[in-house]
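Input chain follows. Return structure tokens only.
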Amino acid sequence: MTTAQPDDPNASAQSAFFIAVIVGVMVAVGLGTYGAVHEPGKVAINVAGFSSFLAVKTWLGTLALVLAIIQLVTALKIYGKLSGGGPMMNVLHRWSGRAAVAVSLPVAAHCLYIAGFKATDGRVLLHSIAGCFFYGAFTVKMLALSDDHSPKWALPVAGGAAFAALTVLWTTSSLWFFTTFGVTF
């Protein structure tokens, strides 16, 4: 078994990614801890045209998932796993990712400040864990993206983890809302 030498580029790349993972874990645990210990707020903001903020969150969550699917497809095209890539794939990937995070922020803020981290039942607990995990994985992805020396597998793994977490979030919130209350606004 060989050990990595201090000047080994693979060792420094793996160390940098390990630090990114530690930061992502700290973000996830920090969000969960804050959500669990703070006193939940009593006021939710409503948006004109929607029956409740739960409906707003449902549709913003759905939009975030659609944008994340665009992220997945464009990433597969960028990495050559699907045909049809081109220079616009990078732009579409970048902007769909920014938009997905932007539409997720009001949902996350509401969940964090109004609801908090809850374990009232399995669905709610899974939703709370997935929300914290999503922002942790997103943090890892952004740190890996900004480091040119990250291992080649780091970005797809972090992006895949963020996509998986967002899918769980949508399933435990928007899909639950649609199946419980119907497709309403």
